[in-house]
Amino acid sequence: MDIFFKKCCSCKETRTLDMFHNSKNGKYGKHHCCKICRKNENSRKEYCKKWASENKELKSKIDREYRIKIKLEIIEKQKKLN
Ligand SMILES: [Zn+2]
Asked: 17: CA distance to ligand 1 center in Å?
């Protein structure tokens, strides 16, 4: 029996197989996310990229602060362990 439907792992909707892009590694030879989710994901990525290139200074500031935050969290955790 052919399987014509597949559940999207992202939006959890059951869609017909033609709503999924082909993928060699995916189940039934299809991508795990539907075309709609893939499109949304791509436009979000594009937006992030665009934002980062337009806000380089802010981006590096955020990255730096994030790294410091992670470091502090690790130090705190180690303190608790000792
Ligand atoms: Zn989806």
From this structure: 12
